Amino acid sequence: MSKNRMETFFDGVVAIIITIMVLELKVPQGADPAALRTKFRAIRERCVRDWCDREAVTLHPDTPEIEAIRLFCRRHTTLAVVERDTKKLSGIVSYWDAIAAITREG
Description:
mainly alpha, 4 helices, 49% helix, CBS-domain, three-stranded mixed β-sheet
């Protein structure tokens, strides 16, 4: 199998894996308006710090795309891109960013 065909095959497999991960997202229970109002009242006073992920998954701008995809498959979360030296946040990578990277031409 040629290198190009192997890369295309691998890209397809990874795209399928990410798609399956996205499709497994659950629709919240109690989606009717009254239930949503009740839920909103219950969370109105809470802050993001009460539920945010304190152990953010990070990678560096020069990390190969395949490593980011592997992290998605293992951690099921968005990834923070930080500079090696300054530790400054330079971006966020989402599942959708990974799918776009896999499916883009060239």
